[in-house]
Design brief:
The chain has helices spanning 3-15, 33-45, 82-90, and strands spanning 19-22, 25-30, 48-61, 65-76. With 101 residues, the chain is of the alpha+beta class.
Length: 101
């Protein structure tokens, strides 16, 4: 994957509140297992690395189905990457799956 395409995908996840920044790390939360692989590809295209993939909990989708929510922690090795500046402008401190206080 080319870096400009990877950065556009990551920006879309920032806007949809799937991707947040915690310190020097990016945290991606999803219920779609295929999105984890796409996220890892995007991070690798920008020179970063996925550090961990953890199941967080099960959430209800509709009335009858539960799905597992996964949290992926990644690091971009460039200290002042433009994605962090994009997150400052368009992102959130909470993912879409976290309850508001």
């Amino acid at each position: 994957m080319l870096p400009p395409i990877a950065e556009k995908k990551l920006q879309a996840w920032v806007r949809s509140r799937h991707l947040v920044c915690e310190g020097n790390f990016f945290v991606f939360e999803t219920v779609d297992a295929g999105a984890i692989e796409r996220f890892a590809d995007c991070i690798a295209a920008l020179g970063g690395a996925v550090l961990s993939v953890e199941p967080v909990d099960k959430i209800w989708v509709g009335d009858r189905r539960q799905v597992m929510r996964h949290r992926v922690r990644a690091s971009l090795h460039t200290p002042h990457h433009s994605l962090k500046q994009y997150w400052f402008k368009h992102g959130s401190f909470r993912t879409r799956f976290e309850a508001d206080p």
